[in-house]
Design brief:
Two copies of one chain form a homodimer.
Chain A lengths: L5 E6 L3 E7 L2 H6 L7 E3 L2 H10 L4 E4 L2 H11 L4 E4 L6 H13 L2 E2 L11 E7 L5 E6 L13 H6 E7 L8 H14 L3 E5 L3 H6 L1 H8 L5 E5 H8 L4 H8 L5 E5 L5 E5 L2 E5 L13 H13 L5 H16 L10 H7 L2
Parallel strand pairs in A: 1-5, 1-9, 2-7, 3-8, 5-6, 9-10, 10-11, 11-12
Antiparallel strand pairs in A: 2-4, 7-8, 12-13, 13-14
Helix pairs in contact in A: 3-11, 9-10, 11-12
């Protein structure tokens, strides 16, 4: 396994989610805009946790969710990210490996605890997040294993990696190593607040460093600071080889040069929790791309994986995605 | 809060559940009978966890689940149990307090970690459990807070408490203190394997020490070593003031002396995971009893609470039980 070929290697913040139902009023009182991801320190994490209802813990992290999705589709993947060797770090490691994802990044034996994300799910199925990065701030270029990167067709990076300071260096090293190996770099813009924090750097990355970009409507319009989706679309198609832009129930738009596909969203039953929808769209899309599918089918598989994840609580698949995708083929 | 009157104080093993879907073949290979609860040591817990699929962590423990249910019904409750002051101990404490249950038992600062229960949920919605008792083995009579017991109408004990050696002393002290305060003692037989381990002691407890007993069909027939439910019924009615015997989809039978009620099961949609059905039946029943309801209504509320819990993954209520109970009144 540790020397076989890989479809995708994901690099991201290694986080355990604590999910709880919450009323919007709690989030207003705590100055957290609905749908936002807020970075918090340890003390604030404790204070917010005290205000939170009974929770459910499950492994998360954007790129971690994507890699679990690729494995559930039958793809071969690896993950690079930093946990502490504590109870939550063991949970994160177990869950990723049990899903079939290779994960060998060295654990911290001292320093900050494994990252936690307090996920407040409001009755509208939206999630508002407060993330304590913990051990993630220790991820550095020394963790970017060159041989793992070289074994994978695509290196997938999450925009959130720009938050922990040393991870940027890891991020830049990963891009260089990937391109040196003749492989592709994919990036998700992660969330509009993240785009706001790193707009200049993300714009630079998209002009040469990133081959495949994932973004939803609010992220891509925020990146280019334009008022409408089509304006952003015209900009991004000049920058990246492939752009996969998601628009919730309106499906996704996939562009490569002159090739453009408008892909309908997959059918969803009850929308329970939208956490991870973007992560799983990327999983389906990259699975398709690394298995020789056309762009339209890549977008369709992305939509199927996203539909599964929003039908239940949590951001890791509960059903075998390979079954769902083949049934919908 | 810490000096108000309480409806129920629950005493039990303080456990965080790790739930995962599993195939029956895995349990056969590991010599775990379907539906059983197996006590395991730390090394075996690690080995089994390695074999387990991706999991979800949530607070559990039989009496802990019951107390969360009573709080969700609007009742006032406290819990006595032992956790380590580690990440899972903090999760357990948070979840119980966030549910509205008083929990002040001193945490361990060294010694064994907080107890974990690996819950394997098979496609038939049955759960097979492997429990590492950890910090629970440190619960002793010094943890039985006399003033808390005296504030509660009922002291509720789980049979599983006979597994950690010093907890028996705590158990016996709790019975004495409860009766000295003129209060009632309730016991759940927990599971047929537990009954097998402590049959003699449980039979003794039922003849004088326990006022209210909860058992399902396999537990009560195992206790009296009889082949049929009705034989067990005739025996238990001579022993305890109140017996509430559950029979799955056939509802429950509630007996107090000459008073007998056959209570239909509440309607259930999809059966997802039966973990906690008995715990929540006890919650509903004891809520009813401590709020002046007749025995039949007590059984009905128990059935409503049990139906909620088997409709989703996990053993703590996801919906407000007070709303469900009043709608069904």
């Amino acid at each position: 396994m540790a020397d076989g070929l890989l479809d995708v290697v994901g690099i991201g913040n290694a986080i355990v989610d604590v999910l709880s139902q919450a009323e919007p009023s709690l989030l207003h009182e705590q100055d957290m805009p609905l749908g936002s991801m807020n970075l918090i320190d340890d003390a604030r994490a404790d204070a917010l946790y005290d205000l939170m209802g009974p929770g459910v813990e499950m492994s998360g992290g954007s790129a971690g969710n994507t890699m679990a999705g690729i494995a559930s589709l039958g793809g071969a993947g690896a993950f690079i990210g930093k946990v502490h060797d504590d109870a939550l770090g063991q949970v994160f490691t177990h869950d990723l490996r049990a899903a079939g994802v290779e994960f060998t990044t060295a654990h911290l034996s001292d320093g900050p605890a494994t990252a936690r994300c307090l996920v407040f799910v409001t009755p509208d199925a939206q999630r508002t997040m407060a993330t304590y990065l913990g051990a993630c701030v220790e991820l550095g270029p020394e963790d970017i294993d060159v041989s793992t990167i070289a074994r994978a067709q695509v290196t997938y990076l999450e925009g959130y990696l720009w938050d922990p300071p040393r991870a940027k260096e890891a991020f830049r090293k990963a891009i260089k190593v990937t391109h040196d190996a003749g492989r592709k770099v994919a990036l998700t813009l992660s969330d509009p607040f993240c785009v706001d924090r790193y707009r200049g750097e993300f714009l630079e990355l998209l002009q040469g460093d990133v081959d495949i970009v994932f973004a939803n409507e609010s992220e891509i319009t925020s990146l280019y600071q334009v008022g409408n989706f089509d304006d952003a679309l015209q900009k991004v198609r000049g920058h990246c080889e492939i752009a996969a832009l998601t628009r919730g129930e309106r499906g996704s738009l996939v562009i490569r040069g002159d090739e453009v596909h408008g892909v309908d969203a997959a059918e969803v039953g009850e929308i329970v929790d939208t956490t991870g929808a973007g992560d799983l769209y990327a999983a389906g899309f990259l699975y398709g791309l690394t298995h020789g599918h056309g762009l339209r089918r890549c977008g369709e598989i992305g939509g199927i994986a996203a539909a599964e994840i929003i039908g239940h609580f949590g951001a890791r698949p509960e059903h075998n995605l390979a079954d769902l995708a083949s049934r919908a083929a």
